[in-house]
Design goal:
Elements lengths: L20 H10 L14 E2 L11 H8 L9 H14 L3 E5 L2 H12 L5 E4 L4 H9 L3 E4 L20 H11 L4 E7 L12 H14 L2 E5 L3 H11 L8 H9 L4 E5 L10 E5 L3 H14 L10 H13 L3 H21 L11 E5 H4 L9 H13 L1 E2 L1 E3 L20 E5 L7 H16 L7 E5 L10 E4 L3
Parallel strand pairs: 1-10, 3-4, 3-5, 5-6, 6-7
Antiparallel strand pairs: 2-8, 7-8, 9-12, 11-12, 13-14
Length: 459
């Protein structure tokens, strides 16, 4: 539980506001009990997401000042291309404005209506874009990933045997491909081993399937591999990344995570010219010209710098260490979470902490709302609220786990902030039976958790 000191010093601060419990009770009610609808200024510690919420370095801010804003062929674009080829080793790399833009470009180009996409686990936007493209997402994570209490080094791994069975049962012609999410966000930011990537590659080669890597937290995954996979103990983070990506055909990356920028994304194709042309055909009408892909030149420059900064081992040890420190405080307090703790945050097992709330009243969401009321902390549900209704039957879908995610922004909060979070969870645990479940009063068809209206269930 030792806190790893920050490998940087602070030279600029942003004030944050502290509010009263009464104020927060009214504010969350006005937001229809949806944390996404809160004004950020009404949040004290914001752990809703680690996407685009990190603090850029002085080098990145300096890069913004020299970003080339040319419409096509900008200097900053070529700087980014140098970085992506060095890190990932793919022949073609395409900037887009964020990760879900990459998914919007990719999945319609790769999916026939009714086809299945298999994955170790889809995250929300990937699942949504597979559905929008007419596909059906299937989660096939290893058994260890579904057991929050037992230790395993790589709980994010795919269940390769289950994938093979699914393909044989449904027919390879009905499978669009395989998505490997690294780290596996939905099961707690859990890493994927290189050995598992090799197994999935062998499976894909046997059936002639594509592998898409959802690479938002590729650097965190590589650090876990270095720490836990014996073969890579002496490898650099870049070497591990290159090895991991060698088993994919395409990657889609939200740069708002491990590249430590506030906006940006990437698509990479290893060596398939036909797919490259399909991507180009979608990028130009959806995102803009190929060399800016919906981004300002200054953002592209910051992205090129951030990709490399995110590979620094001292930084990554601190990054993973923050989650480990917070998890240690929860161990002391007997607060259940997905163990071992993941890279980008702690996933509280709200189903176990609030056993009186059934899955269809969203215990993960209920705990997130209670955290805001208790201490002004914003978190989010990674559970059954996150799961949209079945696209065919329209029936509610139960998640494998009911998590409340505490996602820690990069280079933003200190040890004292994490102590506040732990104290708030201890207070809620002491009165857990008083926390109500929630019901939806309005929801959109896709990605409902972002804008749904809810209310407490009255008994």
């Amino acid at each position: 539980m030792k806190y790893i000191a920050e490998p940087f010093k602070i030279k600029m601060v942003e004030p944050i506001r502290m509010t009263t419990r009464e104020y927060r009770e009214q504010t969350i009610k006005d937001a229809f009990y949806n944390g996404f609808s809160l004004r950020a200024e009404d949040v004290y510690i914001d752990l809703q997401t680690d996407s685009g919420t990190g603090a850029m370095s002085h080098t990145q801010w300096a890069g913004i000042m020299v970003g080339d804003e040319s419409y096509s062929g900008a200097r900053s674009y070529f700087h980014l291309m140098e970085a992506t080829k060095e890190i990932f080793g793919y022949a073609y790399n395409q900037p887009v404005h964020q990760g879900r833009a990459a998914e919007k470009v990719l999945f319609p180009a790769l999916t026939k209506p009714g086809q299945y996409w298999l994955s170790n686990t889809f995250f929300d936007t990937t699942r949504g874009h597979v559905g929008l493209a007419g596909g059906r997402p299937i989660d096939l994570v290893c058994a260890e990933g579904l057991d929050t209490t037992t230790y395993a080094d790589f709980k994010g791994n795919a269940d390769v045997r289950a994938m093979r069975t699914f393909i044989n049962t449904h027919g390879v012609e009905n499978i669009a491909g395989i998505v490997m999410t690294i780290t596996n966000n939905t099961v707690g930011g859990q890493p994927v081993s290189v050995a598992n990537m090799r197994e999935v590659r062998e499976l894909a080669d046997y059936y002639g399937l594509l592998i898409v890597i959802d690479a938002a937290r590729f650097a965190e995954n590589a650090m876990f591999v270095k720490q836990r996979e014996v073969e890579f103990r002496t490898s650099t983070i870049t070497d591990i990344t290159r090895e991991t990506f060698s088993y994919g055909d395409i990657y889609a990356l939200s740069a708002k995570k491990d590249a430590i920028v506030n906006m940006g994304g990437l698509i990479g194709v290893r060596d398939d010219e036909e797919i490259v042309e399909k991507i180009k055909a979608n990028v130009i009408p959806f995102e803009g010209y190929l060399t800016y892909g919906g981004l300002a030149g200054r953002d592209i420059e910051a992205l090129a710098i951030g990709l490399k900064e995110g590979l620094n081992e001292d930084y990554l040890a601190y990054r993973l260490g923050q989650s480990q420190y917070l998890a240690g405080l929860f161990d002391e307090a007997g607060i259940p979470y997905q163990t071992p703790v993941g890279g980008h945050g702690v996933f509280i097992d709200a189903g176990k902490l609030l056993p009186h709330i059934p899955w269809y009243q969203f215990p993960g969401h209920a705990l997130a709302i209670e955290l805001y009321i208790e201490a002004g902390i914003r978190a989010c549900d990674i559970g059954s609220l996150l799961m949209d209704r079945d696209p065919v039957t329209g029936e509610p879908q139960q998640a494998a786990s009911e998590f409340t995610r505490l996602a820690i922004p990069r280079r933003v909060y200190t040890q004292a902030h994490l102590d506040v979070v732990a104290d708030a969870l201890k207070s809620i645990k002491a009165r857990a039976e008083q926390v109500p479940g929630y019901e939806i009063t309005w929801e959109p068809r896709v990605l409902r958790h972002f804008t749904a209206h809810l209310q407490p269930v009255k008994h």
